[in-house]
Amino acid sequence: MAEAKSTELMEKLVSLCKRRGFIYPSSEIYGGINGFWDYGPLGAELKRNVKDLWWRHIVHRRDDVAGLEATIIMSPRIWEASGHVDTFSDPMIDCKTCKGRFRADQIDEIPCPQKPSKCVQDCHGEKTEPRAFNLMFTTHVGPVRDDSSVAYLRPETAQAIFAQFKNVLETSRQKVPFGIAQIGKAFRNEVTPRNYTFRSREFEQMELEFFIKPDEVIEAIHGSIATPGEGHPGEPQPNWGWQIWHKYWVEERIRFYESIGLPRTTLEEYWQTPEELAHYARATVDILFQFPFGTQELEGIAARSDFDLSQHERFSGKPMKVFDDELRAAWKQLDESKQKDLRQRYHDARLGYLTRTGVESEKAAQLAKEDADGLAKGQYVPHVIEPSAGVDRLILALLTSAYSEVTETDAKGKSETRVILRFHPRTAPVKVGVMPLLKNKPGLVAKAREVRDLLLPHLTVFYDDGGSIGRRYARQDEAGTPFCVTIDFDTIGENGPELEGTVTLRERDTSEQTRVKIDELLPLLIEKSR
């Protein structure tokens, strides 16, 4: 029963998004193209609001994060260094009967093309053995299509941040710890895109790479490393190690989701087990959301050690180490045994990285020693904490969370069920609807347009004069508009001077209506939209 209700909700959401202009199937007039979606007028505004809110939260309101906007196509060597060329693949199975191709780990979930009501496991055709299928889209740069011109559409935005790390560090005048943020498109050639916009072939990411000092450096400078407790650890402190920084960003990201209308009760934290972690990760927390099709990942926050910068240093031959004069000064004050202990721990960590990435043992030992000796000179490769969120998944989560239905019965006993999208005012595509009570009364129309023009430079406004005022309210409720302003005969003084210059302000979630002076309307709406 619960599954049926979830399926019904998903169908209603998809229908609403198409009908009201949130999301359209891409290339629909040509039959569509699987795994690609277009955002309509309301969807484009919703998406822009979410990205702007993230950017303000991550970049503008902090002095330790800088922004970046990098190209979609980059040097193929970047993807070799990151491991995407060799390992970014899914195991695929082909059915020799129905000719379908499926991910091996989803074979029980995918409908058979010949028998849509059946699962693949009910198609008795012979299956091939699983084969690796690389998920990157391939293209060519320049006029010649050969191996030398091969390039890739980026499968993630993070690698551009690592590749530009030194440039941003130097030009932004930042010091570790600091972060680099980016919002941008990414592309993955998913074989089985599914669950509407949740898993698509073209999507958008909001990623932060927050660079921190290795624990050995923190201990050398401050003598000890702070450890995380319960809840949010508070304002960043100089003696934070990777564990507390990781906890900090998990809590910060959940706070952000709460601030835009996703209650904490709809979110779950999943701490990956040691067996699930990527080989370079010290810890990863997935923030999960209760979608209609199941509880799925909304964002991942990973402690990625120094893997990424080390890989790009190794593949490019360009140094990714930073100089820290505080470390160099502190190192001289340490006794010999402490220096030896910290050097050995750093050496072992670097040796582990080099060995895991296939560096020959003798060479790895030499490089690890050089890296460890660099501590005395104030040099190290920063570690990184990576909060990585999907814009499209977040849009779907906001739509799911906002969706509600109300059933109302009129004076004649006729019942009607209508949809209300209860977006937080911060994310709502349209902040306020402006409506003359009647469109055939020039005085009302003129005043309504005057009010619209007053609000328009500051808020997203929709002017609506079609149909009864009740129908117009219902349309705005369905679009998620939190406030409606109605200009009536009291506004223009036709019913006496008492209410002249006031309008009716209606709030979506309560249907409460109050009279507000026009000259007080803008600051009131701005305050309510925060």
How would you characterize the overall build of this protein?
The strands form 7 sheets. This protein has a 7-stranded mixed sheet, with helices on both faces. A 5-stranded mixed sheet has the order 20-19-21-22-23, with helices on both faces. Residues 109-121 have low confidence and may be disordered. It folds into 3 domains: 40-83 and 140-320 and 381-405, Bira Bifunctional Protein, Domain 2 (BirA Bifunctional Protein, domain 2, 2-Layer Sandwich), CATH 3.30.930.10; 89-134; 430-528, Anticodon-binding domain (Rossmann fold, 3-Layer(aba) Sandwich). The protein has 16 helices and 23 strands. By secondary structure, the protein is an alpha+beta fold. Helix 2 packs across helix 13, helix 7 (215-222) crosses helix 10 (325-333) and helix 7 (215-222) runs antiparallel to helix 11.
Quote the average pLDDT. Answer: 92
Report the strand count: 23
Summarize the biggest pleated sheet.
7 strands, mixed
Helix content: 25-40%
Strand order in the largest sheet: 3-9-10-16-13-12-11
Low-confidence stretches: 109-121
Strand content bin: 15-25%
**CATH-assigned homologous superfamily of the largest domain:** Bira Bifunctional Protein, Domain 2
Number of helix segments? 16
Can you tell me the number of structural domains? 3
| CATH topology grouping of the largest domain | BirA Bifunctional Protein, domain 2
Q: What is the radius of gyration?
A: 28 Å
Provide the CATH architecture of the largest domain.
2-Layer Sandwich
- Gap between N and C termini, in Å? 39 Å
Give the C-level CATH assignment of the largest domain: Alpha Beta
The chain-level structural class is alpha+beta
